Amino acid sequence: ALALFFAARFYTRVGPRRLMVFGFGLAGLVLVLFVFVDRTTAALTIMFLLALRGLTTPFGFTASQTIVYGPLDNAQQGPASSIYNTGRQVASSFGVALLATIQVNRYHSHLAAAVSAAPGRVATDTMMSHAQVLGFHDAFFVSAVLMAAAGLLGFCINDSKARTAMRKHLPVGRAPGAEPETVPGRSD
């Protein structure tokens, strides 16, 4: 909630492009740090990394949601929110499935490599444990690359066009909060 507060305040100051690049790019960098986590990493270190990870994405998501909802009339924001949230949930599900598949496949690959190099060609608990950690490292690396790619896509956002689009839904000369003009044959 703290990061969301700052993200909303920075949106008007720095614009959506910088906010998306910063939020998603920094999230990618934090995810890279998980590549160095293993079975001996202290729980406090993992909690710190998770908290840091949670502080980064609100900046990117606030910018992307404001770009989507900002230019819309109030009547359109409900359906737009439903569509956006459904797409976000489906994409998250695919992301989890992709990363789980990468982790499992890389585990089997690392384990097979360790077994083939072992003198007895038998998997030990140590080999399986190490292969599992390496599989998680690979999955976190891929997630970091995907998050960094989202940050790079932020460079495609044009701040001035985003501001113009948000201003279009307020008629010229109408103060925010003022009653809208009635137009015959149109209901907003």
Task: Give structural notes.
The chain is mainly alpha-helical. Helix content is 75%, strand content 0%. The longest helix is centred in the middle third of the chain and has 44 residues, at 74-117. Helix 1 packs across helix 2 (16-33), helix 2 runs antiparallel to helix 3 and helix 2 packs antiparallel against helix 5 (125-153).
Give the tags.
single chain; 188 residues; mainly alpha; 6 helices; elongated; disordered C terminus
Write the layout of secondary structure elements.
Blueprint: H1 2-14, H2 16-33, H3 43-69, H4 74-117, H5 125-153, H6 159-168
Helix pairs in contact: 1-2, 1-3, 2-3, 2-5, 4-5
Span of the ends, CA to CA: 33 Å
Q: What order do the SSEs take from the amino end to the carboxyl end, as H and E?
A: HHHHHH
Strand percent estimate: under 5%
Shape: elongated
The total strand number stands at 0
What would you call the structural class? mainly alpha
The percent of residues in helical segments reads over 70%
Write down the overall mean pLDDT.
86
Low-confidence stretches: 174-178, 182-188
> What Rg, in angstroms, do the CA atoms define?
23 Å
Number of helices: 6
Major beta-sheet overview: none
Characterize this entry briefly.
This protein is mainly α. The chain is built from six helices and no strands.
